[in-house]
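Suppose a colleague, Dr. K., hands you the sequence of a protein chain of 125 amino acids and asks what its three-dimensional shape might be. Before reaching for any lab equipment, you can write down a predicted structure in token form. Begin with the sequence itself:
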Amino acid sequence: MSMPQYIEIVVVGATEEKLSEMVKGASMPNAGIAPKYHLVSLAASNEATYQLFADLDYDRVLYWIALDDESLIHCNRANAENCNRETYGRGFYDQYLPNSVVQVYSNQEFIEETHRIAGAFCATS
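The predicted structure, expressed as tokens, is then:
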């Protein structure tokens, strides 16, 4: 059996509160052989728990999850920049996760999306 294809996923929320609310209870392992998740906020807070979108290096990001309309605009813009680079490619993820940018509206939808990502990750091996 071969190794699954590497994937970086960015989860973007307008605020850190929105991120915390939406990702609660989701399985997003970043250690070992697993999809790599980046939890990113558009706005800074006093606690600074998550990375700021402005500080994100998204050259290797293959999948974007927006948690609100404002985040969706930023995800679409960043994804368009990636798609315009000659060296950018999504490999097998074009087949298993055909939409590079998705928006979820609830914690349950987010959890379901992480399961879909895990399935796609395993399918690429």
